[in-house]
Amino acid sequence: MTTLTTRVGFDAFRDRMCDRFGQLSDGLGNQHLHIEHASLGPDEYFTHRLDSDGHHIVYDPRQTSGLMVRQFLGIYATFSEDPIREGVRNAYYEEKAAGGREIWEIVLNEIDRTQDSKGVMDQVLELLRQVRAETKATAV
Fold first, then answer.
1. What number of other Cβ atoms are within 10 A of residue 127's Cβ?
2. Residue 124: strand, helix, or coil
3. Distance CA 83, CA 135 (A)
């Protein structure tokens, strides 16, 4: 795994990724993307590994966000995540209200942390159902 330890390292990594994806003729630049978060060392932004099942990016949420990593990578190649993650990411970008974007970012970070997009969305839906039921109960 290649770990970034400085801003200079981050910029150099970005340049290498751009060059590499520009040269991939076998579709590796379009493989599935797995984004996770974990605690890395001081000033480490994220790591990258290319395996048979696609690209693996691990980012440190103290140093950067999953959305920033996705924005950075999206510039250079088309990546496919699972449909739930893609939907949450798209909802974040389409949301006009800052509060709404903050909610979607929290959801996306939780999905990255747990690696269980369906489970996280089930929890979100259950919370929304509880709020709706409480709102209806107090409105009566």
1. 10
2. helix
3. 30
Q: Which residue has the tokens 């999953």?
A: 66
Pick from 21, 48, 24: nearest CA to 34: 48
Instruction: Measure the CA–CA gap between 111 and 105, rounded to whole angstroms.
Output: 10
What pLDDT sits at residue 116? 94
Q: How far apart are CA 51 and CA 80, in angstroms?
A: 15
Average pLDDT over residues 9-36: 67
Tokens 């449909």 belong to 83
Q: Is the pTM of this model over 0.70?
A: no
d(CA 84, CA 97): 21
Helix (H) or strand (E) holding 101, with range, is: helix 98-114
Comparing C-alpha atoms, which of 37, 24, 51 is closest to residue 109? 37
Residue 128 Ramachandran class (φ > 0 left, ψ -120 to 50 alpha, else beta): alpha
Strand partners, 3: 47
